[in-house]
Each structure stands twice: as C-alpha cells, then as structure tokens.
Amino acid sequence: MAEGRIIKALSGFYYVQSGGEVYQCRGRGVFRNRKITPLVGDFVSFDENEAGEGYIMDIKDRENELVRPPIANIDQVIIIASAVRPDFSPMLLDRFLVLIEAKEITPVIFVTKMDAVTEAEKREIEQYSKNYREIGYDVEMLSSKDSENLPVLDHYFDKKVTVFAGQSGVGKSSLLNALHPSLLLETGEISRSLGRGKHTTRHVELVEIKGGLVADTPGFSALDFNEVEADELADCFPEMRERKRLCKFRGCRHHKEPKCAVKQAVETGEIKSYRYEHYLQFLEEIQSRKPRY
C-alpha cells in the first residue's frame, strides 16, 4: 500500500502523485456506496496493481474542501481583483473574503491592472489596500508589466496549495500563464459589451508552480452564502471576530443589539463603515434565504 496526493481528476481516473511518480488510479466502489468522492488535493492510500496504475483504498481526513472547484486541503486562496475592466469592487472582494474565511482558508489579495487606472482611482485603491492590510490581509498591487517579472510573488506559493479566485476578466489565467509559461491556459477574451469574460477552464489539476501546487482552474463560480449561517458571519470579518467578546450580549449579531463593541468600533472608525455595511447586507441575505429541509 502506497500513499500520495491526488493532483488531477479526469473522466473517472484519479492521478496520484507519490514519491516523484504519478499513478493513474480508480476509486473503489466502497467510496460510491458511502457517497464519498475523492477530490483533487486529497491525501490517499492506494494499491498499485500494475506499473503506474492502481486503486484508491482510503482517503485521509480533510483539512478543508471547496465545492467549486472540487478540491481539498487548500492552504490559501489568492483573490484576483482588477483595478479596471471590471472595476474594483470592495463589495465583491468582501464576498470572496467571507466565503474563504468561512472555510478557514487563508485569503491573499492581488489587485491587477494597476497601470490602467487614473491617479484618482489609484489613490482610492491604495487606500482600500491599506485598509485590508490593517485588517491583516496580504495585498499585492500588480501592473500588466509585472507579468514578465514576478519573483516578488514567489514566496506566496512556496510549499503551499493555492487556488485562484475572482470574477471573469480580472486576469487569473494571464497571471497563471506568467507564473508558469508552459501551462498556456486559454485566456478568456473580455467581451466589453457584456463586461465579463468567457469561462475557459476545464478539469481540476494541481500544477507545480514556484515550489508549491496551484489549481489551474479559477474557484468560486457561485458567490452565494448557502453554507454560511447568520451566527457565523461576523467571524468571517477578522476585525469583528476579535471584538465580539467585548459585546454585552453573547451571540450579538452587531445589528440592533445595545452595547455592541462592533458598532462602537464602526463609530470610532476602527472598523471601516463600508465593511460594516457589507456585513449587514450579507446578514440580510442569509436571513432572508429560504430554509433548507
């Protein structure tokens, strides 16, 4: 029995990397019976029955998992937000951050196309970047010219499993191609009339980049909060999470409750008002969704 990590899933086969080799494996029927699907990123035990082929016998416990893309044991999600085309949106960025925080995965923020903004837009985005750094997030601002010279980003990937996320047209595939030219991912042409890109990725695969593994497919094709409960939402905002113990009421949702430390921090400017407004919008969205049975 050998052990390894699934690095690709395609047409019912799972490609398991073990000891520098890749084995083409099938999942045992027992997984189907238990309604368990092996995922890219899973650590598994497998039986090699012929040269380079085998059967997955066991799946190790997962640290975390995503549904889109279907991948497990992720260290970080790099959110790609563009400065323009599509325009920088703190609301959309906060949606991504909440979904990643809810999975207890580390988010990193890359803002692309900084060379295509006006001076006023640049100042505004730099202020937002400063705000997110103060919360504790790593933020990198990149111009199109940076794609030829990316060693400054190498440390983000070393010994980590990374998924890229972001709306269409922000430059996810272009950045992956710049980091790993032999990938030659199709870059989606942006339809300017629609203001969005074409979806260009296929199966899920982990590729070796800069000493780590990167999923060559963008994540989060759906940005709803179906898996986030109202009581968990504030924990997905680090600046609220660290103040909730100071609220008068246990289980405070930081909305209409009196003596709320989060609302006090918004009033004093310690928590940015736009972040709090997004929190209230997301809370309303979660509370108004239809119950699941």
TrEMBL record:
Top-level EC class as recorded in UniProt: hydrolase
Amino-acid positions noted as binding Zn(2+) in the UniProt annotation, renumbered to this chain: C247, C252, H254, C260
Keyword field contains Glycosyltransferase: no
InterPro entries in alphabetical order: G_CP_dom, NA-bd_OB-fold, P-loop_NTPase, Ribosome_biogen_GTPase_RsgA, RsgA_GTPase_dom, RsgA_N
Signal peptide coordinates: none
Occurrences of domain EngC GTPase (ranges): 72-221
EC number of the protein: 3.6.1.-
Superkingdom of source: Bacteria
Domain CP-type G, residue spans: 63-223
Protein residues bound to GTP: T112, K113, M114, D115, G166, Q167, S168, G169, V170, G171, K172, S173, S174
Membrane-traversing stretches: none
Keyword Zinc tagged: yes
PROSITE patterns the UniProt entry points to: ENGC_GTPASE (PS50936), G_CP (PS51721)
Subcellular location: Cytoplasm
Cofactor(s) required, per the database record: Zn(2+)
CC cofactor note: Binds 1 zinc ion per subunit.
Key words of the record: Cytoplasm, GTP-binding, Hydrolase, Metal-binding, Nucleotide-binding, Ribosome biogenesis, RNA-binding, rRNA-binding, Zinc
Main function: One of several proteins that assist in the late maturation steps of the functional core of the 30S ribosomal subunit. Helps release RbfA from mature subunits. May play a role in the assembly of ribosomal proteins into the subunit. Circularly permuted GTPase that catalyzes slow GTP hydrolysis, GTPase activity is stimulated by the 30S ribosomal subunit.
Description of how the protein assembles with itself and partners: Monomer. Associates with 30S ribosomal subunit, binds 16S rRNA.
Family listed: Belongs to the TRAFAC class YlqF/YawG GTPase family. RsgA subfamily.
HAMAP family listed in its UniProt record: GTPase_RsgA
NCBIfam families according to UniProt: ribosome small subunit-dependent GTPase A
Protein name: Small ribosomal subunit biogenesis GTPase RsgA
